[in-house]
Specification:
By secondary structure, this protein is α+β, with helices and mostly antiparallel strands. It is built from four helices and three strands, in the order βββαααα. It binds zinc ion. Zinc ion binds next to loops.
Length: about 160
Amino acid sequence: MKITFSYARGAGKCSFCPTPITVGEPVVVGRTPVSAGGKNFYSKRRWHPQCYLDQGLRYLELHPFTPEAKGRPRLPTLPIGDKLRRLSILRRHATTLQRIRAELRKPKPNFDTLARLGERVELLRTEISTYGGAPKSWQPKPESPNTLIEVVTDDISCQLEMSEV
Ligand SMILES: [Zn+2]
């Protein structure tokens, strides 16, 4: 809505109070663009300047200030046992990724080991779904589809195909 202050050119009703608006009186005019039947026009509302303020303040009264929650979003509350199991899965996942990276850095990576580690990552993904779901960082990033895991699994499948030949 576009708000302007002007003098009433015609008499009319106030959008907030029952007192009529008289010609020449200061008014707040609100114009909202409306499209209907293929035509664009403005829906117009008028207020006494004080009424415009009162309406805004009343709105704020009805919608009290609520400070936004800070920090990272909280997990759905899990029983303590589940929390520990989740933590254990997160740790095993991190360790497994570390081992995959270490294996890949070797001059001759062992592809059996990589396949086994890749399977374990998949297993942990399934396992964590019962304990609050996989964290965001486990999701493949949309802008860079070649996350480590995908690169790893690609390498493994390449190697598997080659060894089958
Ligand atoms: Zn009014």
